[in-house]
Specification:
By secondary structure, the chain is α/β, with parallel strands linked by helices. It has one domain: YbaK protein (Alpha-Beta Complex). Strands 1, 2, 3, 4, 5, 6, 7 and 8 form an 8-stranded mixed sheet that branches. The longest helix has 11 residues. It is globular.
């Protein structure tokens, strides 16, 4: 059975990770969250579930404003060209549906099939905000605790500077 929000909060509590959750109507895109999250401090996220043709699975958690050039990301990650993973694969590997993609879903990947890539701009915030396995709430934790949580799920987070990648791509054109 896929862990629930209650299981997530129990895991955070067991790790001694402070968390605060705000309930809200479902948010499927970053644009839909504008205004709704104004009273929630910290870095707000966009999360992308990606795969390459060889089956490499990648979860990117970035600051909502970060530009991610998926057509160039594979070079930085040392994998094949990336595309969005199918909803069925997302549900199978991370136990969430589109619109609810979150770093917290790594809890549902005990075999560590999914690589975790975190945006350095997001990690520069003291507090980071993610959906707690569904898009009807947002949970805030300390950025350093996110890294601790990710490692506790058996994943090693990769911190990537997406701004530098975009600048390098622009310079190459």
């Amino acid at each position: 059975m896929t862990p629930s929000r209650t299981d997530l909060f129990a895991r955070l509590d067991a790790l001694g990770i402070a968390h605060k959750t705000h309930e809200h109507p479902p948010i499927f895109t970053v644009a839909e969250g504008v205004g709704m999250k104004d009273d929630m401090p910290g870095g707000h996220t966009k999360n992308l579930f990606l795969r390459d043709k060889k089956g490499t699975l990648i979860l990117v958690s970035a600051l909502a404003e970060t530009e991610i050039r998926i057509n160039r990301l594979h070079t930085a990650l040392g994998c094949g060209r990336l595309s969005f993973g199918k909803p069925e694969l997302l549900l199978e590997t991370l136990g969430v549906t589109p619109g609810s993609v979150t770093a917290f879903a790594l809890l549902n990947d005990p075999d560590a099939r999914v690589r975790c890539v975190l945006d350095s701009a997001l990690m520069a915030h003291d507090i980071v905000n993610f959906h707690p396995l569904s898009n009807t709430a947002t949970t805030a934790i300390a950025a350093e605790d996110l890294v601790r949580f990710v490692r506790d799920t058996g994943h090693e987070p990769e911190i990537l500077d997406f701004r530098a990648l975009a600048a390098a791509a622009d310079a190459a054109q």
